Amino acid sequence: MPHPLVFQLRFARSEFARCLEGVPPKDAVRRAPPMNSLSWIVGHLAGQESAYWVLLAQGQKIHPELRDLAGTGRPASTPPLEEMWFAWREVTAAADIYLDTLTVETLQTRFIWKGEPYRETVGTLLLRNLYHYWYHTGEAAGIRQALGHTDLPDFIGDLGIHAPYLPE
After folding, report:
1. Who is most buried in 43, 108, 124, 131, counting CB within 10 A?
2. Exposure string over 68-86, b if 16+ CB within 10 A, otherwise e
C-alpha cells in the first residue's frame, strides 16, 4: 500500500485536474502577466514530478522539453494545453512507479545527484511537490476567474473519500 503522503499527492493531483476541467484550449494559452498560462502550469507541475520522481529517483528522462517550456525561471510560454496534459499523464504514470515504493525509511534518505547527496530528503521533496500542487491549483482557479469562467469547482473536494486521514 502506498505511503499516506502519496495518497495525499494523488488527491492534490486530482483536485488540480478537476480545477482545469473544461478549460477551452484558447483560454489555456492566455496570459494575464505576470502570471503564466494555464497550460504552462500543467507543464510546470509535470516538470517537477519528472525531475524528482523520474530523473532523480529512476535515472530516466521523459519529456525533457518541459524544462525549457515550463521550468522555474524560464521565460513565460504558452504551450498547447493538450500537449501539456499528455506530458503530465505520462510523467505522473512514470512517477507513480517510484512513488508506490516509498516507505518511512525511504522518505528519510536523499537522492544522489552528480555524485553528491541531494540537498533535501525524499520526504521533503514529496511535501514540496504536494504543496506545489495546491499553490498552482489556487493560482489556476484565480486565473480562470480572471478569464471570466463561471461555475468553477469548489475546493477541497472529496478528501474524506479519496485521501482521508486514517491513523494506523
Report:
1. 43
2. ebbbeeeeebebebeebbe
pLDDT one-digit tens code per residue, 2-44: 999 999 999 999 999 999 999 999 999 999 888 899 999 999 9
Percentages helix, strand, coil for the chain, rounded to the nearest 5?
Answer: 60, 0, 40
Give residue 47's Cα distance to chain centre. Answer: 8
What's the rounded Cα separation, in Å, for the pair 87 and 97? 16
Question: Domain 4-153: which topology?
Answer: Four Helix Bundle (Hemerythrin (Met), subunit A) (1.20.120)
Half-sphere exposure (CA, 13 Å, Cβ side) for 45? 31
Parse the chain into domains and list their residue ranges: 4-153
